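DM from R.C. (forwarded with permission)

"hey, sorry to bug you on a friday — could you get me a structure for this? deadline for the figure draft is monday and I only need the backbone to look sensible"
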Amino acid sequence: MDKEKGLWGQINEGIHDACYIWAKEMKATVKDEGVLIFFFLVPIFYPLLYSWAYNNETIHNVPVAVVDMSHSQMSRQFIREYDASSDVKVAYKCNDMSEAKDLVQKQVVDGIVYIPADFATRLNRMEQTAISVYTDMSLMMTYKAIYQSAQAVASDLGAKMNVALSGNTTHREDEITVQPLAYEEVPIFNPTGGYGSFLLPAVLILIIQQTLVLGIGLAAGTARENNRYQDLVPISKHYNGLFRIVFGKSMCYFMVGAVTSAWLTLAIPRLFGFPALFRASDLVAFLFPYILACIFFGMFVSCIVRYRENVILLVVFASLPLLFLSGVSWPQSNIPGYWQGFSWLFPSTFGARGFIRINTMGATLLDVRPEFVCLWIQAIAYFLATCAVYRYQILHTRRHALERLEYMKERAEQAKKKDVINSQKGN
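My reply, with the result:
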């Protein structure tokens, strides 16, 4: 019976200590401006800015310079049809490439279309010809508009030439010549073909991870700075246990992560009209292990990195590579195996893949089972790793406490001996 009471007493004490640590972490979060910025302000305002920048999804009337060296009826027809497309606008007609390059360098136009001198001659000889398109590859949306418009006009002119040479007698024969197999192009999961709908879901998931890791790292750095021995775990009776520390801190971070995740995954896509085909139950069930994995990953990293500034540099530097390694902006099949293995260390890899399938493609939790299982594995693995590093921190703190106690005892004994000597001299 005594053992039972002792066990229940320890459990009750552990729960009270965990709640004390949770409350203390919440107070420290509110008081620390740096932590507050990364926990709340960045997740709230950064997605708004990013979504607003790509809210138009597609761009129109991209200015282009045309260099027509052919000066033929066919080249003029190509220019008219190219200028008639909604995505581009023929802003300048230049005499040579040097003039067009000057316009690009001055950022007056975003691309150049070069029509060679033998353009019409080769077409009249029934030979293949070419039109050169020069674009700035650093601007993917303008590149897409300029290149695809030129490709569409070239295909249309080629179809018209095939009809003229076919010798057909009816319009139906002309239609079959132009399009032997009728098809309808339907862009699934991204109806507008926009850059925002394509990339933003992965960015939102990455923001959850990066802000949690940054906030946890800054909070750990503050705790070290406020400690006399630069220890992560303070000397206190409430911190006398491994699991109460880990659970107390993680409860605070989970509350923050749940609020920011709801804002990023539920509110942002609907505010800006991005695809949102998820079911709430599947999304919540998927985000639960993802938030846990991010929290324990951040707690593990915070034990390794000692200074606040190092956490900021490390996490911000890793943001863009992690976006590429997630397999969203770059095909997963083209990523080397060793880089794919490296990406499995980060929750954002499986989080981005699963969230895109649930949110953009309307997948169920069963459809993203591999990613869901991997997130649970990461959450458990990083929980154990966090417990290991915090165990080391607790032992480190206890050693410093014992050293401090021995020092105080020595000081007390020296003071006592000094008082005895002074009293003997006085007698």
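R.C.: lifesaver. The domain at 62-178 is CATH 3.40.1710.10 (abc type-2 transporter like fold).
me: no worries. The mean pLDDT is 84.
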